[in-house]
């Protein structure tokens, strides 16, 4: 192939780092003075996102083991993350309106718990996937343990749950749009991975679903 490629750890770093940087944009001074409570909500929810992105960008990505990654996909990923980071940040800073008791609202608390639950699944699944291969090994193996006991795309499921949790916690249109995009983008990937595993491994667990435990 004539495609230009980069090292496997670069895509996770290059595509998500711009979005993480946008997350550190400080609120406008008048916003902080007029809406102190709302600013706390914005800082907290944005902090969750920035924490996960930096964790994936600067820690997980350098432990990835895989084949070279097409540079074109890296560039498209960077553009999307910049655009999405701008939308999320702009809405939270300039458009979002929350009541004073939003910290105790069921949508906020359940959304944060769902976000943390999904992030835990995502990180744990990524660790299990990394442990499948030794340095220089590019062969496919059957993932075992954790949510992989029930689905082929445990890491995908965790990320989808995570961003829907964020959308519920922020209760914003851009966040729900991003969560839906995540579902539509990586949901089919989980399905195709599942089909690939079934074709490649004759001993692949037949009871294991593609994305949603016991359902799909």
TrEMBL record:
The keyword Transport does not apply. It holds the Pfam family Steroid_dh. Its main location: membrane. The chain crosses the membrane at residues 35-59, 71-94, 106-125, 163-186. It is a multi-pass membrane protein. Belongs to the steroid 5-alpha reductase family. This is 3-oxo-5alpha-steroid 4-dehydrogenase (NADP(+)). It comes from Chelonoidis abingdonii (Abingdon island giant tortoise).
């Amino acid at each position: 192939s004539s495609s230009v490629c980069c090292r496997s750890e670069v895509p996770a770093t290059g595509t998500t780092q711009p979005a993480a940087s946008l997350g550190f944009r400080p609120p406008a001074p008048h916003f902080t003075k007029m809406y102190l409570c709302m600013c706390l909500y914005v800082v907290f929810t944005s902090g969750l996102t920035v924490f996960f992105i930096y964790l994936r960008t600067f820690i997980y990505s350098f432990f990835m083991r895989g084949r070279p990654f097409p540079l074109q996909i890296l560039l498209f990923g960077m553009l999307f993350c910049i655009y999405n980071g701008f939308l999320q940040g702009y809405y939270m800073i300039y458009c979002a309106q929350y009541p004073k008791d939003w910290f105790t609202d069921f949508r906020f608390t359940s959304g944060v718990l769902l976000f943390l639950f999904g992030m835990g699944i995502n990180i744990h699944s990524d660790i299990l996937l990394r442990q499948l291969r030794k340095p220089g090994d590019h062969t496919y193996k059957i993932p075992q343990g954790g949510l992989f006991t029930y689905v082929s795309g445990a890491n995908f499921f965790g990320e989808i749950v995570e961003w829907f949790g964020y959308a519920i916690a922020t209760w914003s249109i851009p966040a729900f749009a991003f969560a839906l995009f995540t579902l539509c983008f990586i949901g089919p990937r989980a399905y195709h991975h599942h089909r690939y595993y079934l074709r490649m491994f004759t001993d692949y667990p037949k009871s294991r679903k593609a994305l949603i435990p016991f359902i799909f």
